[in-house]
């Protein structure tokens, strides 16, 4: 634990944002277990959301109670509306607070995230199908959020 004080049950040193089907059982799992082994109180949705709790409000509570955000961008990250909404909440929150966001580009290029190319382009094409005006505005918010996140200094993990 980062401090000697007992944290409230909704206070986290690190919040992990990731696309489960891409990284949950490999990279994210190893990162989570390492952080926990070092005594770092880490939020990961399948471990920390309370059973029966509304997911959106649980994520919002966890985001507001976190100090550092590690965003693991992967091939299918942008295909998930949940991931994109979560990222938008994180970027919005960290703009207001003095928190740190650390992007990890897991088998994707930062430029693909920022410019929404490659798999990110395909994901946005699918989001934009039959989108009404409200959804188009949300999609534009996601695009802006990804551009901001891609400009942050982070880590690039590739096949080597």
Automatic annotation (TrEMBL):
Alphabetical list of InterPro entries matching this protein: TIR_dom, Toll_tir_struct_dom_sf
Assigned EC number: 3.2.2.6
An example molecular function term from Gene Ontology annotations: NAD+ nucleosidase activity, cyclic ADP-ribose generating
GO cellular component: cytoplasm; nucleus
Alphabetized Pfam families for the sequence: TIR
Keyword tags: Cytoplasm, Hydrolase, NAD, Nucleus
Known catalytic reactions: NAD(+) + H2O = ADP-D-ribose + nicotinamide + H(+)
GO BP terms: defense response to fungus; positive regulation of programmed cell death; signal transduction
Residue ranges occupied by any TIR domain in the UniProt entry: 10-160
Keyword Nucleus: yes
Top-level taxon of origin: Eukaryota
Protein's cellular compartments: Cytoplasm; Nucleus
Main location (coarse class): cytoplasm
Family to which this protein belongs: Belongs to the disease resistance TIR-NB-LRR family.
Protein name (Swiss-Prot/TrEMBL): ADP-ribosyl cyclase/cyclic ADP-ribose hydrolase
Source organism of the structure: Vitis vinifera (Grape)
């Amino acid at each position: 634990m980062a401090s000697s004080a007992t944290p409230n049950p909704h206070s986290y040193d690190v919040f992990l944002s990731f696309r489960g089907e891409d990284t949950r059982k490999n990279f994210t799992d190893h990162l989570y277990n390492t952080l926990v082994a070092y005594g770092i109180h880490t939020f990961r949705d399948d471990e920390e959301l309370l059973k029966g709790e509304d997911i959106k409000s649980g994520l919002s509570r966890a985001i507001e109670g976190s100090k550092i955000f590690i965003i693991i961008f992967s091939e299918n990250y942008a295909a998930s509306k949940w991931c994109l909404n979560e990222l938008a909440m994180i970027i919005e929150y960290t703009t207001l607070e003095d928190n740190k966001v650390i992007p990890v580009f897991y088998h994707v290029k930062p430029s693909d995230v920022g410019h929404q190319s490659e798999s990110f382009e395909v994901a946005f094409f699918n989001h934009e199908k039959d989108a009404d005006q409200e959804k188009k505005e949300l999609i534009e918010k996601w695009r802006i959020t990804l551009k901001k996140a891609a400009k942050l200094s982070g880590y690039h993990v590739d096949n080597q």
